[in-house]
Amino acid sequence: MKTKHSVLWDSRKSRYSLFSIAIFLFAATNIGYSMAVTNKYKTYDFKLSSKIVSFSEPDNYSKDFSKPNTKNQTLNIFDPDVYTDSEYSLVLHKAYWDYGRSFFIGKVNGTLSMTVALVRTYETQLNLENGEQFKNALQLDFEHDYDKQTQEDYGITPPEEYTSQTISTSKWVHYKYDSNGEIRSVYSIPLSEQHYLQIIFSFIDNSTGKANDWEQQATSTMNQIMSSFQIK
Question: Which residue among 89, 161, 191, 192 is buried most deeply as judged by most CB within 10 Å?
Answer without folding.
Answer: 191
